[in-house]
Design brief:
The complex is a heterodimer of chains A (about 700) and B (about 160). Chain A has about 700 residues and is an alpha/beta fold. Chain A has a domain of about 100 residues. Chain A contains 23 helices and 25 strands. The longest helix of chain A has about 35 residues. Chain B is of the alpha/beta class. A seven-stranded mixed β-sheet of chain B has the order 3-1-2-4-5-6-7, with helices on one face. Chain B is globular. The chains are: A alpha/beta (about 700), B alpha/beta (about 160). Chains A and B meet through helix 22 and strand 20 of A and loops of B.
């Protein structure tokens, strides 16, 4: 008699009726009536195993799958496979939770520990956060999300981002904090009533506190839109205070004014220094330095200019005794014709300072005012590193501050392309199915927030960070409606998708082929059309977002490599290319790269960034300015990757060599990660890979980056 | 005259966005030279009229504006290169008087021959001197060792 080896290793006699039952149930799910077929499958399998003493349960299931696939009942076959996978996942996940917890204790799961380059998994508070994340992710997959969404996520067809926070916790992604409203109207934080600040020193200190609080209640980045405009009144107050004192002690008004200006400049510089230190020493409840972005550059008053200069000068100076490059706050500098673009513009001097800063510290990235308005409808700083809000009006007035993004679900486009086996028609059919899945997944994010009350996050909903003052028992869901918040479909790997779908010698490379470029844009246009439709049908601000894919570049590719093997130009490198970006290995000049990428932001207007890889530009700001100027009417948001690392062994300042084992000083060959400061772009954010390693696929991508000059 | 490399867009050799030509031929044989294959004047590709026209065209590009031309090598002032270089710099200055020319040489300014000095009339910035390995310093702009100088040429014809 034949015996079956079960998954746990135990044995059991072969039982044909179980197969009949399983197949019948799959037929039933597919609404097919054919009892004979179930009997037929069971009999066929019984025949093949007859005479064998031991058969593995997996072999039996594979045979059933095969028989069903080669029959006319493809839908039933799919149901059977889905059922099998769901059971596999359930079984697997029972062990997964304890395994994940153990890996935090043992520090041996690279994926879990290095998923976010901003988290130092060696320290206890971060480990507590990771532990909470493991449990939240596990619970959400088992008990909150619909089974088929969890299964699609596990298979790597879609990626439900930030599962370690939401939907377990009713948290959203990223936002523009309404600092102006909070400071003007006062608010309560912890046990303290905070009134309108009377100096820039206090305003900066309170800003740091708000950032810390907000960052502990959301999982994505917090941005301050136009911080120069928002902080200007407090610079003025500081000036007036000094002027009063000057008049009292000096008497002469001219002299007193000069004195007040000088004192204010010093106070303002010190205030931003303190704010920068504060941000970099903060540890949020999420176990990391807050992901915070300062947007500035458009103000032309004395106060606003002073804020801009103070932020840049502090950044140029660097942090601490080694003058290290800080990675937070991210700085985003707005460039506008008539403000700072041309030498005759009033803030042209600040553009020069921004260029110097970018050459030494990589930030600021730039926002090109006119192009941004053209692409997204209005001017605003990105939330976090690259998420952009659309236009939203209240009482005929455009509102930006206090708005947010509800989260992202990304599509694995290369997977769809691989599965389509070169057929464009199949690709678009499958894409349609996956889009449906992504939409359902995104709706679970919205539903999770539906009945939530303001009291879960007073700083956001009661004290004004979201631009509203709800009562603790009020529902929060209304402030996410009608496009006030965005919710985003993400995508990854246009480069690999095109290779998988149209690869072959006749067509050549995406960059070199006009035809393939159009095919690539067509895919992104299809995604955009889908989110437009969802927006129309639901009233929620669905937008298309070019996923930064810090750990996702590794995850999707790893899963696809496991499933489909090594495919040249697709899975071979160990990472997928960021959204619509040009292949990092393609050797083109930055001007041509801008031209290549400039077609995408208008379709993916919910999130995008373009950048170029430069050599050290400290001695050539003029050339850096040439590239910035070139981007002005082409891309809305641009970053120049100009590595400027420093060696504490030999005092070398310049670019370190990236190797797959780490970084090396080119002058003295120092490899000790404690004796260097190395800064690289991880995604829209910077990271310091020497102290907190990137996930494997990301490091591989960094090593392969070629200079565009 | 032969050349080894031509970068139509360059930001590393001289200020601004530039075109850079590396010619073959050098008699300094500096220890630690970053480009020792360029010593042999017969290496590389003959610098012909088409190449000269291409440089002129690139310098005039209106999409990607160039600040000027950089001449390096090898040594542009290597005796065998002088006539070729002179013809090129004369044409660049005639066609684009507003654009500047930077030149790297292993000779020192004070020791230039009359023929080399003739070329110098068309050069805006000279980086002179041999590369000396014991004075290697990666932090210096536009040059490799501490003895080398970046000299703005006031006598340059505009």
């Amino acid at each position: 008699m034949t015996e079956i080896i079960k998954r746990d290793g135990s044995r059991q006699p072969f039982d044909a009726p179980r197969i009949v039952k399983a197949v019948a149930s799959a037929l039933n799910d597919a609404q097919i009536k054919d009892n004979d077929f179930a009997e037929y499958v069971a009999k066929k399998v019984a025949n093949t195993v007859a005479g064998q003493e031991l058969v593995d349960i997996y072999d039996i299931q594979d045979q059933v799958e095969h028989l069903m696939m080669s029959s006319e009942y493809h839908n039933a076959a799919r149901k059977y496979i889905e059922y099998r996978q769901t059971r596999d996942i359930e079984r697997e996940s029972r062990n997964a939770l304890s395994r994940d917890i153990l890996s935090i204790i043992n520090q041996d799961n690279e994926e879990l520990l290095n998923e976010n380059a901003n988290k130092d998994s060696k320290i206890i508070p971060t480990q507590r956060d990771l532990l909470a994340g493991v449990v939240a992710r596990h619970y959400a997959k088992q008990h909150i999300l619909p089974k088929h969404i969890t299964a699609a996520h596990e298979r790597g067809e879609i990626h439900y981002h930030d599962l370690d926070y939401a939907p377990f916790f009713p948290m959203f992604n990223c936002m523009l904090i309404d600092i102006e409203g909070m400071m003007t109207n006062g608010f309560r934080m912890g046990n303290a009533e905070i009134e309108t600040p009377r100096s820039i020193t206090t305003a900066a200190a309170i800003t740091a506190q708000i950032i810390a609080q907000v960052s502990s209640h959301i999982y994505g980045g917090t941005s301050i839109n136009e911080i120069d405009r928002i902080h200007a009144p407090y610079v003025r107050k500081t000036f007036e205070k000094h002027l009063q004192q000057g008049m009292r002690w000096i008497g002469d008004e001219q002299k007193a004014r000069e004195y007040a200006m000088e004192m204010t400049e010093k106070d303002c510089y010190d205030a931003y220094q303190a704010l920068e230190y504060e941000v970099n020493t903060l540890h949020t409840a999420n176990g990391q330095t807050p992901f915070v972005t300062f947007g500035f550059g458009l103000g032309t008053s004395w106060e606003e200019r002073l804020v801009q200069k103070s932020i840049l000068k502090n950044r140029i100076r660097g942090l601490g005794k080694n003058c290290k490059t800080p990675v937070f706050p991210k700085l985003v500098f707005a460039i506008r014709k008539g403000v700072n673009f041309n030498p005759e513009d009033p803030n042209y001097d600040i553009k020069q300072l921004a260029l110097e800063c970018a050459s030494k510290r990589m930030y600021p990235d730039i926002l090109n005012y006119d192009k941004l308005v053209e692409v997204t409808g209005s001017f605003k700083t990105p939330m976090g590193c690259r998420s952009f809000l659309g236009v939203y009006e209240e009482d005929g007035k455009m509102i930006h501050d206090g708005r947010n993004n509800l989260g992202v679900v990304s599509l694995n486009l290369p997977r769809i392309a691989i599965e389509s086996k070169g057929s464009e028609a199949t690709f678009y059919q499958l894409l349609e199915q996956r889009l449906q899945l992504a939409r359902e997944a995104l709706m679970t994010r919205i539903q999770r927030l539906d009945s939530v009350r303001a009291r879960v996050a007073p700083i956001l909903y009661v004290e004004g960070a979201c631009g509203v003052r709800l009562k603790p028992d009020d529902k929060i869901s209304d402030i996410f409606k009608n496009g006030r918040a965005s919710i985003s479909l993400g995508y990854i790997g246009i480069h690999e998708t095109i290779n998988a779908l149209y690869g072959g010698k006749s067509t050549g490379d995406l960059y070199d082929s006009e035809e393939l470029r159009q095919k690539a844009v067509a895919i992104v246009e299809t995604l955009r059309a889908a989110v437009n439709k969802w927006k129309e049908e639901t009233g929620y601000g669905f937008s298309l977002y070019s996923t930064p894919s810090e750990s996702l570049c590794d995850r999707f590719c790893r899963l696809d490599k496991k499933k489909f093997g090594v495919i040249e130009g697709v899975t071979e490198k160990g990472y997928y290319t960021n959204s619509f970006h040009l292949d990092v290995e393609k050797k083109v000049n930055p001007y041509d790269k801008v031209d290549f990428e400039q077609v995408y932001p208008k379709h993916a207007s919910g999130g995008f960034i373009c950048y170029g890889e430069y050599p050290n530009m400290v001695n050539n700001l003029k050339a850096l300015e040439n590239v910035w100027d070139y981007t002005y009417d082409k891309v809305p948001y641009y970053g120049t990757n100009t590595p400027n690392d420093s060696c504490y062994s030999c005092a070398y300042e310049g670019e370190f060599n990236a190797t797959s084992r780490g970084f090396e000083c080119p002058q003295c060959k120092n490899r000790d990660s404690d004796k260097m400061s190395v800064t690289r772009r991880v995604c829209g954010y910077l990271g310091q890979p020497n102290s907190r390693p990137f996930i494997k696929g990301k490091q591989e991508e960094v090593v392969r980056r070629v200079k565009h000059l | 005259m032969n050349y080894l490399q031509y970068y139509p867009i360059d930001v590393v050799n001289g200020e601004g966005t530039r075109c850079t030509l590396f010619v073959s031929g050098c008699e300094h044989f500096c220890r630690g030279c970053h480009n020792a294959t360029s010593w042999d004047a017969s290496k590389g590709t003959p610098f012909d009229q088409a190449m000269e026209d291409r440089i002129i065209e690139d310098l005039g590009d209106t999409r990607i504006k160039r600040d000027g031309l950089s001449l390096s090598g090898g040594d542009p002032l290597f005796p065998g290169n002088l006539s070729g270089i002179l013809k090129l710099v004369k044409r660049v200055k005639a066609d684009y008087p507003e654009k500047n020319i930077w030149l790297w040489t292993g000779y020192t300014l004070e020791a230039l021959s009359p023929a080399q000095q003739e070329v110098m009339q068309y050069i805006d910035v000279l980086i002179d001197g041999r590369f000396e390995l014991d004075k290697r310093d990666l932090s210096l702009p536009w040059r490799g060792s501490g003895n080398q100088r970046v000299i703005p040429m006031k006598s340059c014809i505009h």
